[in-house]
């Protein structure tokens, strides 16, 4: 999800970094960012099946991201 950027810049980023494999949403007003406590990019928000939300600010790398997803899916 992108926020506070114009749509042309977002499209360029998606093309330059080959991340078109999933939906990208422009949150111009920052409503979604505020709801999930995102203060900067990169940030990752995980929503557990019981509705609990955890937002991690900063880069995670493939190993840490995989670990976080495995924790969510193993409960």
What is the overall silhouette? globular
What ranges have pLDDT less than 50 throughout 5 or more consecutive residues? none
Please tell me the overall pLDDT.
83
SSE order in H/E notation?
Answer: HHEEH
Radius of gyration: 14 Å
Question: Which percent bin holds the helix content?
Answer: 25-40%
Biggest sheet strand line-up: 1-2
First-last Cα distance: 26 Å
Number of helical regions: 3
Could you characterize what this model shows?
With 75 residues, this protein is of the alpha+beta class. It folds into two domains: 36 residues, no CATH class; 39 residues, no CATH class. Helices cover 39% and strands 13% of the residues. The chain contains three helices and two strands. Strands 1-2 form a two-stranded antiparallel ribbon. Strand 1 and strand 2 form a beta hairpin. The two termini are 26 Å apart.
What distinguishing features does this structure have?
75 residues, alpha+beta, two-stranded antiparallel sheet, 2 strands, 13% strand, globular
Short characterization:
By secondary structure, the protein is of the alpha+beta class. It folds into two domains: 1-36, no CATH class; 37-75, no CATH class. It has helices at 7-16, 31-36, 61-73, and strands at 43-47, 53-57.
Topology:
Elements: H1 7-16, H2 31-36, E1 43-47, E2 53-57, H3 61-73
Antiparallel strand pairs: 1-2
């Amino acid at each position: 999800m992108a926020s506070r950027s114009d749509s042309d810049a977002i499209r360029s980023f998606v093309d330059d970094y080959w991340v078109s494999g999933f939906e990208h949403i422009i949150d111009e007003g920052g409503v979604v960012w505020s709801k999930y406590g995102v203060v900067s990019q990169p940030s990752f928000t995980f929503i557990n099946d019981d509705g609990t939300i955890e937002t991690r600010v900063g880069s995670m790398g493939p190993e840490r991201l995989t670990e976080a997803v495995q924790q969510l899916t193993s409960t």
